[in-house]
Design a protein that fits this description.
CATH superfamily of the largest domain: P-loop containing nucleotide triphosphate hydrolases
Shape: globular
Oligomer: single chain
Keywords: ATP-binding, Coiled coil, Helicase, Hydrolase, Nucleotide-binding
Pfam families: DEAD, Helicase_C, TPR_DDX60, WHD_DDX60
Strand order of the largest sheet: 4-3-5-2-6-7-1-8
Distance between the termini: 56 Å
Largest sheet: 8 strands, mixed
Protein name: DDX60 helicase
InterPro entries: DEAD/DEAH_box_helicase_dom, Helicase_ATP-bd, Helicase_C-like, P-loop_NTPase, SKI2_subfamily_helicases, WHD_DDX60
Helix content: 40-55%
Number of helices: 50
CATH architecture of the largest domain: 3-Layer(aba) Sandwich
GO molecular function: ATP binding; helicase activity; hydrolase activity; nucleic acid binding
Length: about 1250
């Protein structure tokens, strides 16, 4: 083994470094200034990110390099037209998201003036004459409106009664639609009473017809529904005659006890005629089992003046209070519960306050960005000074009005660019609120650290929204600690500003109206657990070519051991009918159950003699049953619990994967027959998403051909040909020549026009899709709107396919589609035209695509507890569906059980630092105009990671990682000893999301490898194909790293157009990578050796799965334990169990060995080291080749070839190529700004490559 070199750190004289790592610096060895490691540092000029390296010209901001689609500052007429078209579409798109009547018009107001007016208004004690007149006018208008509605109801009353009696379901639906149009409570009450009378007559007639046969209790449900509504919503309007009517209805249903409790008279009904109409089911059981999802919820009836169109619940008012008080809030509430309303209230508040304030809405996906922008356009308008707009957008693909808008909608990565940019700090101070939608994304594996960075760098209040956070208290406590840090920082700056007029706080507070509002540092936690609609689960399997669809009771997912060890999950909720099912099964399993009578629905304390049983009452019953189920295990009735759970379990039948997909279209049709559409079918493979939608289309097309016969196509072609001839003749006739044409010729023309109309009519009849061969609802969208929507697809590669699918009521949705294609599917689905959508998880995060049913059509490793809850949350459209349906289509039963009973993973945070991030923080601290502000932000990022919250050991590890990262940056020439950026620091930070490739690229430039490669054709500035192909090869090895499985190598000589497997880097470039890796490995190994003292050695000697602890007394004297102890004496930073295999500290200097050797309790792995592996091997030691898609496309320019040869989905391939092109352009732009010589060969080569690649990509 080689001798491990002594660890020594190069000192860094930086206030940021000293403030952050001061407590650990004293324990770390520091090199003297005359040490060779210090004297041999790369000598660069200081590199100013805001200037050219030499010339002094400004360097463009990273956000300015993103394509600008349209900007309010644009003076170009074509650009202005583009803005107008975009705004028109967004208004239209927004109208599909919510009712346009909810649009809010926000006028510009003077802040001080409005504030004074508000004060004066509160001081008034008497109403002015004008106010009295206005109130009188309003009263008169309301009376007039009420009279108009009364007349309208008189005209419809008789017809509505007849419709209800003819078909109670259709009639009641029409009655409820009419009710939604009414404003007068008295008219609504009259309508409800009429509906009750009609429903009672329907029930009585049904009973007379059926006699002693089984009755359809759905008709009785409609009677009870009207009684519930009248007693709950119109209690103040019920008089004695009305109460007598309700009592009579209850007696007809056989609910004598309820009738007595309502009338207050104890009287037994002996009327045999009435008893013939009785249901023969107890009132409590009837309400739970048959009314189920019709049961009412607890709702407030007192309006809130801040909300115009609905009465908010208590928890929603708490959100509005938080916004009014400039407080931050963490909001955890189910999908479709109304949590996002606070976001738009927040936006409205900032828009009303001034023209300077900014609200930032952070969405996790581009699809959600588009949705939020559409909603903003439909809700808000405001007159602003020239150059300012209400809404701006910033994503990786496009941007507009980023710094000149009042509401910026963006994704986390793009907001981080702005927050850490030295030149954008002035804009950042204008931010009044930040709204984080789907904040649980900070628990993900990719990009989670960016959410953390944003939450800790913003100084303003925030709203953090999510439906799936399992430890919201912990999250809130962490965020509150961050706010306390900012409060201390603000107070310190406030104190220092009194001593120095140059302090940034004096500028910050003196110049902007925006910051005059008093900020609160409180972080509220608002929890709401009740879903608006219950979800019921079904397990679907294929049996003898028929579908077996069984209800899956949530408790069926449990086991005795799970209940005993973990309890019943808190979010495992039951519908009312499922609660009854659980009770009945408990009685059946344990007939001597002591509490059977007490928990009988008719005897349960919350139900007894209660006319209106509400959801809250059922929740109490559900909780009592769950407690009793857990208690059975405590009482020693494990076997009975086991029997009960087994009795509830469905018994699906297994079938092959091929059979499942072969009959997928038939399964969709089965759901259509069951009236369970619209539905979203979640599938986790992009190709399968598309093929499944096409299969459903082909199924309907085949069905149409069977109905219409084989001769229809021939007839259509014949009619088209004949119609073409007629049109050609008619087209020659000029209407202005009517007087010149002789009567006989005119007569022929009239005949031809008549024939043309007849042919068009016949052709339309043959062309129109029969209603039985499409799932589309033609009534949902008129033809003009449909034509307008399809017009957006005219230039899209798959526009025609999407149009054909949509006409059959089918669509598919995934992230690799063009945004216009996704928007068309989203709009038509929301409008009710499309009823079947196959999708990946692109529809799981916050997209407003509510549906009646959600179907999990494919098992996948991505189908976990979190995704299950996010996706199933789409089911149950508020205001449309009374219940949501979740179907598992041939998903293995053990997986279904895990999904239902598993808890969502807790948010614990990811490793928050990367070397690129540290460089960006150092650049921010060094180059920002406002040094104090920048330093405070950088310290907040470094000090407040969620991973290290209340874990001092992890805080120490992060500080040491920070110090060793600085050593790497200094030795590689990106920072000087004062922590100031130099060399290629700017280029590296612009490509920060491609670490470690960004550092490797810079090392190639430093070594002059690109200058050796990029030699133009003699006598010109043009480069040969060979040079450019080598350049693409190098860039593909750095930035186009998509691995293929090792087994794919056996197909090497079978491809038609692509080479598929990417060649290795040229030898000199590969040597440079190896040299870079060696330096990174050495630095990282020194870090691991230094942090070894922080490891929890008790945990290190414990096996992770069995928890066997070799330090415990039971293992004292054991030969194995003694051997373990002996082998670790010669090492300092290696896991004891790794030592057994002969590993030593030297193995930490090899990247491939780090994960096997490292101490587990440190929470560190090789991904925290910026290594670029030239070769990657699978678990069997086989080399995995890189996909050569970027180079192959450069050679043949065919997207189809990438799908057939390179195993890429077409959409994925397009976006991967687009990303690759953006990298080429970004590097070219950076080089042009860093280089004095516009004729530099490397610069020209990158520019030429960018032009050629752009031409190839946009020609497909």
């Amino acid at each position: 083994d080689r001798k491990i070199p002594n660890i020594g750190l190069i000192s860094v004289k930086s206030g940021l470094v000293e403030d952050y790592t001061g407590d650990v610096l004293k324990d770390l060895p520091v090199l003297k200034s005359n040490d060779t490691a210090v004297t041999s540092l790369i000598k660069y000029k200081e590199f100013d990110e805001l200037r050219h390296w030499h010339s002094g010209r400004p360097l463009t901001e990273e956000y300015e390099r993103v394509q600008c689609t349209a900007d309010a500052k644009s003076k170009d007429p074509a650009g202005r037209r583009q803005i107008q078209k975009l705004q028109a579409f967004r208004h239209f798109y927004g109208s599909t998201l919510e009712d346009t009547t909810s649009k809010l018009i926000v006028h510009q107001k003077d802040v001080s003036g409005s504030a004074n007016a508000a004060v004066k208004k509160t001081q008034k004690k008497h109403k002015s004459k004008a106010e009295i007149i206005a109130e009188e006018n309003n009263r008169r208008l309301r009376a007039k409106e009420e009279k108009k509605e009364e007349e309208q109801w008189k005209a419809l009353c008789m017809r509505t009664e007849k419709e209800i009696k003819a078909d109670v379901t259709v009639g009641i639906n029409k009655l409820e639609k009419f009710l939604k149009t009414l404003k007068s409570k008295s008219v609504k009450f009259s309508v409800e009473m009429t509906g009750l009378s009609a429903c009672l007559e329907v029930w009585k007639e049904h009973c007379r017809t059926q006699g002693n046969k089984d009755k359809d209790l759905s008709k009785a449900v409609q009677v009870m529904r009207r009684i519930h509504i009248l007693l709950e919503k119109y209690q103040d309007m019920l008089e004695k005659p009305h109460l007598e009517k309700l009592t009579k209805c209850l007696r007809y249903l056989g609910f004598e006890n309820l009738a007595c409790s309502l009338s207050g008279q104890v009287r037994e009904s002996n009327d045999k005629k009435i008893s013939n109409y009785a249901i023969r089911v107890g009132p409590a059981r009837f309400q739970l089992q048959y009314m189920d999802y019709y049961l009412l919820r607890e709702e407030r009836h007192d309006p809130d003046p801040r909300v115009q169109h609905f009465i908010p619940d208590t928890w929603q008012r708490e959100l509005l209070d938080a916004v009014d008080n400039n407080e931050s809030a963490v909001i955890v509430a189910p999908t479709s519960s109304g949590k996002t309303y606070a976001s738009y209230y927040c936006m409205e508040k900032v828009l009303k306050a001034s023209n300077e304030g900014v609200v930032v809405y952070v969405a996790p996906t581009k699809a959600l960005v588009n949705q939020v922008v559409g909603t903003i356009y439909s809700r808000f308008t405001k007159k602003l000074p020239d150059g300012l707009v209400v809404c701006g957008v910033f994503t990786r693909d496009y941007r507009h009005d980023v710094v000149n808008c009042q509401i910026l909608v963006t994704v986390p990565q793009c907001l981080e660019i702005l927050m850490l940019s030295p030149r954008c700090q002035k804009w950042a101070k204008r931010i009044q609120y930040v709204i984080f939608d789907e904040v649980h994304c900070l628990g993900g594996e990719i990009g989670a650290e960016v959410w953390e960075h944003l939450l800790v760098t913003i100084r303003c209040p925030f709203l953090a929204l999510s439906a799936t956070v399992s430890n919201p208290e912990h999250l809130t406590e962490w965020l509150q600690s961050v706010k306390r840090y900012w409060q201390r920082t603000e107070n310190r700056i406030e104190r220092s500003s009194t001593n120095s007029e140059k302090n940034f706080t004096r500028k910050y507070k003196g110049k902007s109206k925006v910051q005059e509002q008093k900020q609160s540092y409180r972080v509220r936690l608002v929890l709401y657990e009740e879903r608006y609609n219950d979800l019921e689960k079904y397990v679907c399997s294929l049996k003898s070519r028929d579908f077996l669809i069984e209800h899956c009771h949530p408790c069926a997912a449990l086991t005795v051991n799970h209940i005993e060890n973990y309890g019943i999950p808190s979010d495992l909720s039951l519908s009312p009918r499922e609660s009854i099912q659980l009770y009945d099964t408990m009685v059946k399993v344990w007939q001597e159950w002591p509490r059977a009578q007490e928990l009988d629905p008719e005897a349960f304390v919350s139900f007894k003699n209660k006319v209106v049983i509400k959801k809250a009452d059922v929740r109490k019953y559900e909780q009592e049953l769950k407690k009793e189920l857990s208690k059975w295990i405590v009482l020693g009735q494990r076997q009975k619990v086991d029997w009960l759970l087994e009795h509830l379990k469905p018994k699906p039948v297994d079938c092959s994967e091929n059979e499942k997909w072969k009959h997928f279209a038939s399964f969709v049709n089965k759901l259509h027959e069951m009236d369970k559409l619209p539905a979203i079918f979640f599938i986790f493979n992009v190709d399968t998403v598309e093929s499944a939608a096409k299969n459903v289309f082909l199924y309907l097309l085949k069905k149409q051909r069977l109905i219409q016969g084989l001769n229809v196509e021939k007839e259509r072609n014949r009619l088209r040909a004949e119609l073409g001839k007629v049109r050609k003749i008619v087209g020659k006739f000029n209407p202005e020549d009517t007087k010149k044409v002789n009567p006989s010729k005119m007569e022929n023309i009239v005949v031809l026009l008549t024939k043309k109309a007849q042919l068009e009519k016949r052709l339309k009849g043959l062309t129109d899709i029969p209603s039985s061969c499409t799932y589309a609802d033609p009534k949902a969208v008129d033809e003009d709107t449909l034509r307008k929507i399809f017009y957006r697809l005219r230039f899209e590669r798959r526009g025609y396919l999407h149009q054909r699918l949509a006409l059959r009521g089918i669509g598919y949705h995934h992230a690799s589609m063009a945004s216009k294609e996704r928007q068309v599917v989203e709009m038509l689905f929301r409008m009710g035209y499309i009823k079947v959508v196959t999708a990946t998880s692109s529809l799981a995060l916050g997209i407003n695509m509510p549906c009646k049913s959600v179907v999990f059509a494919e098992d996948s490793v991505f189908l976990d507890a979190l995704n299950y809850r996010q996706m199933s949350g789409r089911a149950g459209r508020r205001g449309y569906d009374m219940i949501g349906n979740v179907f598992f289509y041939d998903i293995p039963m053990p997986k279904v059980e895990r999904l239902i009973k598993s808890n969502i993973p807790e948010l614990k945070g990811q490793f928050p630092l990367t070397i690129s991030l540290i460089l960006r923080l150092m650049l921010l601290a060094a180059k920002a105009d406002d040094k104090e502000d920048a330093k405070a932000k950088a310290l907040s990022v470094l000090k407040h990671s969620l991973m290290s919250f209340r874990k001092e050991r992890y805080s120490q590890i992060l500080k040491i990682y920070f110090m060793f990262s600085l050593q790497f940056l200094i030795k590689e020439g990106y920072l000087d000893q004062e922590g100031k950026p130099m060399g290629f620091a700017g280029l590296v930070t612009h490509l920060h999301y491609h670490e470690p490739s960004n550092f490797v690229l810079a090392s190639f430039l430093v070594k002059g490898l690109f200058h050796k490669l990029c030699k133009p054709i003699k006598g010109s500035t043009v480069f040969s194909e060979d040079v450019l192909e080598k350049l693409v090869l190098i860039l593909a090895n750095l930035f186009g790293r998509k691995y293929l499985p090792a087994c794919s190598l056996k197909y090497k000589h079978t491809f038609c157009q692509s080479k598929v497997f990417l060649e290795d880097l040229p030898e000199d470039f590969a040597e440079a990578v190896n040299e870079y890796n060696t330096k990174a490995e050495e630095n990282f190994a020194h870090f691991l050796l230094t942090t070894a003292k922080l490891a929890d050695m008790e945990q290190e000697y414990r096996l992770p799965l069995s928890k066997t602890d070799f330090t415990s007394k039971s293992w004292h004297g054991s030969e194995l334990a003694s051997y373990l102890m002996d082998t670790t004496k010669s090492v300092s930073a290696i896991s004891p169990f790794a030592c057994v295999s002969g590993m030593t500290d030297n193995d930490l200097f090899l990247g491939a060995s780090i994960n096997k050797a490292v101490l587990r309790s440190l929470g560190i792995n090789v991904t925290n080291c910026p290594l670029l592996y030239l070769n990657k091997y699978d678990n069997q030691g086989r080399r995995q080749p890189l996909n050569a898609y970027a180079l192959d496309f450069y050679k043949h320019g065919s997207l189809i070839a990438l799908t057939t040869d390179n195993w890429l989905n077409e959409g994925d391939a397009y976006y991967a190529l687009k990303e690759f092109l953006l990298i080429i352009k970004s590097i070219g732009t950076s080089l042009s700004e860093l280089c004095d010589d516009p004729n530099d060969n490397v610069l020209l080569a990158f520019q030429q490559l960018g032009e050629i690649y752009t031409e190839k990509l946009y020609c497909i």
